[in-house]
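Quick start: read one record
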Amino acid sequence: MRNQQIYRAPYARRSKQVSANLSKDLRKKYGKRSVRLAIDDSVKIIRGEYKGIDGKITKIAIDKGSIAIEGIKKEKLKGEKIDVYIPSSNILVTSLNTDDHWRKSKLEGKKPKSTPKEAKQEKPKEAKQEKPKEAKQEKPKETSVKKPAKTKSKESKN
């Protein structure tokens, strides 16, 4: 059932699924674990036949959920070279293309969490001198008298 939802998803939802994990440096910088892929992002292949190759994204195939990386091509029998598409799950993003200001603001929107060690380092509290408290005089509460509600009779309407 889950696979049907993934592979039969509308185009707009499929485009969100073309994402990859960020490198450790980028995770610390942006406070995110993964990001949608965009053209000109630098990536490293971490699984598969082309493992260990670095390059920039040249094409994104949303229908396949995969990307083409510059420098990775396959030669056909007639001598023609074609792009090799690699699944986005086999990719690690090493640097981001931040030309798009919308993407940049979305990335910086979530700040990295502070580590517990930094949060616990507080200065010791100094002893404060206590001032004698003055007794406040209470004012007597005023009681409000409610007026009886007027009832309309049939005679007053005629």
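The chain is about 25% helix and 25% strand.
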